[in-house]
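Below is how a single chain appears once it has passed through the pipeline. First comes the sequence as given, then the structure the pipeline wrote out for it. We keep one example in the README because the format questions we get most often are answered faster by looking than by reading.
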Amino acid sequence: MLTNKEKKYLRKLANPLTAIYQVGKEGISSNQLKGINDYLEAHELMKISILRNCDSEPMEVALDICSATKAELVQIIGKIIIIYRPSKKKLINLKEAY
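Resulting structure:
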């Protein structure tokens, strides 16, 4: 579970990132989940955008992705989701948040 300071730090790091994956009306496919898992292992932090034609609410999509990838939800801004999962490499030092 991330603290508020850690979430604030991760939001700062995610600000310059671009959304790598998009979720459309078909929802999340298993191939997308595999790609998200691989990306999180390599980078730990990512943005995902939800297209306008997606029928699901952003919170539903975010919770589905987080539960499937064991990631933590950092923030939802409109139709942009920011998620974090520490990798084996420990690229992001959350102690810097304090």
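The mean pLDDT is 93.

See the next section for the split statistics.
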